[in-house]
Amino acid sequence: MRSDLKSAKELWGWTKTLGISISLAMLVNIFVLQPFKVNGQSMEPTLQNAERIYVSKLSHTFSYLPEYNDIVVVDSRVNRDRTLKDDLLENPLLMFSMGKRDGKTFWVKRVIGRPGDTLEFKNEIMYRNGQPLNEPYIKEKMVNVPDAKIVIPENHVFVMGDNRNNSDDSRVIGVIPLDHIMGKKLF
After folding, report:
1. N- or C-end of the chain: fewer Cβ atoms within 10 A?
2. Which of 57, 109, 184, 185 is catalytic?
3. Catalytic entry in 42, 76, 167, 170
4. Which pTM value belongs to this model?
5. Cα–Cα distance, 115 to 106 (Å, whole number)
6. What is the residue extent of each domain of the chain?
7. Is 42 a catalytic residue?
């Protein structure tokens, strides 16, 4: 009898430890650090298809405005509000969330414009606030880009892939709300 009680207590101890460990791992993954996989060639030559990156989620958790040239992961579903429920259900530690973490939803891009900036595409050159951008990280010069002018509204950013001629980005879906920036690439 005493042996059964000792076994039950030991089992309960292991179960509590496992539960606490899984809960802590989920909290870290939701609010602090999360892995993402690059899908496609839109960030070449900086990042390659299928490369794994780790993203600080602190900017998402505390609504920090990213800096110019930061590489970020964005939720491309900009026509809907994001909620805490999205963050919980899209956690890669949950088995049923895996289908939502595809390259069609979460995009890895570079921040080009911040709130209040005026971006202009003129003669296939990118200008920010009247100054041509020096972009040594892009794969090749943009071609077949119609002239356009965009003013970035408050609480939004403009993102583009480094492979400008092969990237779906803010030129396709528009500006990105700050709450749709999932995090900033660390390594």
Report:
1. N
2. 109
3. 42
4. 0.81
5. 21
6. 32-185
7. yes
